[in-house]
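Posting for a labmate who doesn't have an account.
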Amino acid sequence: MPIVPSINASRLSQKEFGGLAYEVMDHVFAIHNDFGRFFDEKIYKKELAARMKGVQLEVFVDVVHGTFSKRYFADVIVRDGGLFEFKAADAIHPKHRGQTIHYLLLFDLAHGKIINVRTDEVKHEFVNCHGRLADLRNPNIIDKAWDRTTPGAESFRDTLAALIHDLGTGLDLALYEEALEHFFNAIQPLVSCVPVFGEGGHLADQRKRLVTPESAFKLTALSDPPDNLHAHARKLLRHTPLKAIHWANLTHDQITLTTIHS
C-alpha cells in the first residue's frame, strides 16, 4: 500500500467533527488563557492531551512508492477521527491550509482544523477536504507543449505519471519533488547545484532539481498559471548551463506538461 497510516482513522461527518471541534476548542481556549501566547506549539498540544481523553500526538503516516518512502506526523488526532494542526505563527497562512489538506488526504479524513496559539486570542479555521486520494489517481494529461525529444523528458513524464497513479494528486508538492529527485538520482548521481553566470562571470551556484545534468524540473499546483512564468524560466536558462526545464502543473483532475527551452 502506498499510504500506510499508523492508526485506523474514522472519517467523521461534518456534524460529528463540528461537535468534536467544539469540545477541543473549549480546552484550547482554557489552555491559552492559562499559558498565554508565547510558548511553542508542542506545549499546548501536550497540555491538551493531559486535559482531554482520546488525544494522540504526532500521529505518523508512511508514504511509499517503490524504493522511496517518507514519514509524516500529524500534530493532533482526537478519537481517531478529528485532525487538528497547531501553529504558533503571526497568522494562519495559505501554506497552513495546504498542509492540513495534505494530512486529511493521507489519513482519508474529510474535516480538520487549524489552531493558531501565538496571537492574542486563539485563531482557528475549519479546513474541509471532500476529495479522496483513491479518486485522484487518474488525472487527465495535457501535453500539447511537451517536447519528448528533450533529454530527460520521457523519464520525467513516466516517473511522475507512475507516482501520481500510485499516490494521487493534491498532496504537498514537496513530496512529489522529493520522490522525483530520489528516482532521478538513482538513474545517475546528479549534482544539485548549478552555476549562475552574470556580467562578471560566475556569480554563485544555486540548487536546482535536475532530471539530467542539462535539464531541470519544476512542479506547480496553480489553478491559473501566470503568463510570465515561461519568460522568467527562459531568463533562468540564459544564466545557467541548463538547456531545458520540464514543467508540470498539477491540479486534482489534470496534469499539464510543458517543455521550456533555453
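Reply:
Got it, the C-alpha cells are right above this. The first strand starts at residue 3 and ends at 5.
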